[in-house]
Amino acid sequence: MKHVELMDISKSYDKQTNVLDEINLSINKGEFFVLVGPSGCGKSTLLRMVAGLEEITGGVLKLNDEVANHLPPKNRNLSMVFQNYALYPHLTVEQNILFGLDVKRVNKKEQKRRLMETAEMIGLSELLKRKPKELSGGQRQRVALARSVVSEAPLCLMDEPLSNLDAKLRAHMRVEIRRLQRKLGLTMIYVTHDQVEAMTMGDRIMVLNDGKVQQVGKPITLYNEPANTFVASFIGSPKMNMGKAELFVENRQIKVEDKLTFHLSPSDLIHIPADKKTMIGIRAEHIYPATEQDATNYLEVVGVEQLGNETIIVFEELGGHLWNAKWPGQWAINLGDKVPVNISVQNFCFFDAENGQLIQPAYQEQNQEQEVIAQ
Amino acid sequence: MNTESAMPFEYNQVHFEELKKQQRKKVFLKGLLFLLPSLLLFSIFIFYPMIRTVYLSFFLTNQAGITTVFVGMQNYIDIFTSPIFMKSLTSTFLFVLFTVPGTIIVSLFLAVIANEKIKGIGFFRMIFSSTMGVSVAAASVFWLFLFHPSIGFFNKILVTFGFDKIGWLTNPEWALASVSLSTIWMNIGFTFLIILGGLQSIDSHLYESANIDGAGFFYKLRRITIPMLSPTLFFVVTVSIINSFQTFGQIDMLTKGGPSNETNLIVYSIYREAFVNYQYGTASAQAVILFIIILIMTVIQFKLGERKVHYQ
């Protein structure tokens, strides 16, 4: 069942340029939906429009199948967690959590019951009498969460709620928010600029750039079949390696940035698009280490990042960008070395050289997926 | 073995101590150098007159202000037994009671409505704060016309509605209220500006969060705006009280302390005592009393107020 539906939603501040351009989207009940994009792409604005804090310039917003454009925030039956938490600094944690219930004149007994339940669930029972300034960043975040939970609103909006936390706490809160959302069956719209958060938390993700929808889909779909070069480079870390490619059918060759040459097998020729000029992308984990025998290419190393369990090798520039490879384990490689690598054309994503739209995703992936399913 | 290793260590420490002492001395001297200009100015214009005032309050003086006879506490005894000074004290307290809450309530109201994001709000903000740019003398002349018994705006209105004319500045029952009214008007600009500044520093997310919860205007005012504004309000109240106690200009322009000493506020009383009656001794004693009153009021405010003020 659809909970939130956006039809041709646009936003413009000066009536000339749209900061959001005809967004179409529907979010199901109980879904964890992530809006992700670089800063200034309009994702927060979109969220605030759903909340009713921002005027909708054009289009129709439906909540529970009813038009909600005109509704004030309080009648939309939702809760919101702000990036800076928006806790009332002069009120205690308890008063902060109960603020919304007090506004709605929920009776004291019911307030108490919900407070205890929520505090228990979120682990704030010990802190109820404290003021926000006596709390750590993580605890403040919990209070903001509790405020949203205690309202029992079926739709929860979150605007970059984890961006003020340190990396460790962020990873922890990611799991916790996700667990809470499942437990309470909330419909969640979650805004972030962090693609890792988007990938790990979302049931579905919408990638936004310059006020336009780039792609909507499951995290894995976005990763494997990015709709265009923007999504390809935005989703995944390190980002997808990209380069201009030229196909020479007669020689059964494909050349990337005039530097890397790949020979094509007959089956490759069937699978890859026939366009002469394309943009190709390959994930860092698909540039494999190779021995002298199975090396397809040699690349010069300009940087090595040791992460312990894996090693990121940064290669020379190809088409203005450094290429990255991610190899499992620890590799002792010297800068300036030319190392043999194995790159397979099967792992290439092909994009249109002109508009950057996906022509064909990596077909190796599809095979692997099918294998997994077959097993 | 222990002593061997300890010896040079101790020696070093003594050496460091000495160096540190020298450095501290240098820093202190440098600090003093920076303080010197303000110390000098304060001494000439604040500390010296203050000490001189206290000194004078124990003496009788001639017309030139030269001390003649030491009278000890006699000046204080005199002013506290003088009905005119007691009247002046009560008038002053009443005046403070009228003007401070009046100014703050009106300014708060204006600031809250001027804090809305509407087109052209800048114009209203300018108008509301404009009284700050009007000098007391100019404003008093303006109010003098408003209060004028025959051609004044207020009396004209009263007459149009069929009421009797009021001697705004000449009727003992009305004079203090009239002066208070004009003072409130004059103080609004400054207070409005400070309160507006305070309002604008409140995080707008707090209101958005309250909007989502469905809080109404007055609920937000009571539970967010006022508490978040408390440091600003506290500052404004303190400054307003001190200002009110020190009111002089509009009294001199509008009523000259009359009618029948009804508006003879303490600073005006000091002025008259010193520069009209040439009683520098009693004038100084009154000044000392004013200083003590303001000191006590401010201390009480800090003791009581600070507990309820929420600083972020």
TrEMBL record, chain A:
SMART domains: AAA. SUPFAM superfamilies: MOP-like, P-loop containing nucleoside triphosphate hydrolases. One of its GO terms (molecular function) is ATP hydrolysis activity. One of its GO terms (cellular component) is ATP-binding cassette (ABC) transporter complex, substrate-binding subunit-containing. PROSITE patterns: ABC_TRANSPORTER_1, ABC_TRANSPORTER_2. The keyword Aminoacyl-tRNA synthetase does not apply. GO terms for biological process: carbohydrate transport. It comes from the Bacteria. Residues 4-235 form the ABC transporter domain. Keywords: ATP-binding, Cell membrane, Membrane, Nucleotide-binding, Translocase, Transport. Gene3D superfamilies: 2.40.50.100, Nucleic acid-binding proteins, P-loop containing nucleotide triphosphate hydrolases. InterPro entries: AAA+_ATPase, ABC_transporter-like_ATP-bd, ABC_transporter-like_CS, ABC_transpr_MalK-like, ABC_transpr_MalK/UgpC-like, Mo/tungstate-bd_C_term_dom, NA-bd_OB-fold, P-loop_NTPase. Signal peptide: none annotated. This is Glycerol-3-phosphate ABC transporter ATP-binding protein. It comes from Peribacillus loiseleuriae.
Automatic annotation (TrEMBL), chain B:
It is found in: Cell membrane. GO terms for biological process: transmembrane transport. The keyword ATP-binding does not apply. Residues 89-301 form the ABC transmembrane type-1 domain. Keywords: Cell membrane, Membrane, Transmembrane, Transmembrane helix, Transport. It is a multi-pass membrane protein. Its main location: membrane. InterPro entries: ABC_transporter_permease, MetI-like, MetI-like_sf. Pfam families: BPD_transp_1. The chain crosses the membrane at residues 27-51, 93-114, 126-146, 174-199, 226-245, 283-302. GO terms for cellular component: plasma membrane. Belongs to the binding-protein-dependent transport system permease family. This is Glycerol-3-phosphate ABC transporter permease.
